[in-house]
Amino acid sequence: MPEKVRVDRGKDFLSRTVTAAFDLLDVTVEDLPAYTSHLKGTVEGLNRAAESMFLAALPG
């Protein structure tokens, strides 16, 4: 059983049901900082390149 769970602020992990379950199991929930794109410039650049190369040919 984990002592602490780190979540990425996703609504599914911060819902009342999940939070209540973690409380019953005595597991601490730690919210990670909000998304900041300037801290992930390389990843964001790669994502933009993949979108322009691979997804541009798809319809819609």
Q: What does this entry show, briefly?
A:
The protein has helices at residues 16-24, 41-55; strands at residues 4-7, 28-31. With 60 residues, the chain is α+β, with helices and mostly antiparallel strands.
Molecular structure report:
This protein is α+β, with helices and mostly antiparallel strands and 60 residues long. The chain is 40% helix and 13% strand. It has two helices and two strands.
Q: Kindly report the oligomeric state of this protein.
A: single chain
Helix content: 40-55%
Q: Average pLDDT value?
A: 82
Element string (H = helix, E = strand) = EHEH
Strand order of the largest sheet: 1-2
> Globular, elongated, flat, extended or rod-shaped: what is the shape?
elongated
Which keywords apply here?
60 residues; two-stranded parallel ribbon; elongated
Topology, element by element:
Blueprint: E1 4-7, H1 16-24, E2 28-31, H2 41-55
Parallel strand pairs: 1-2
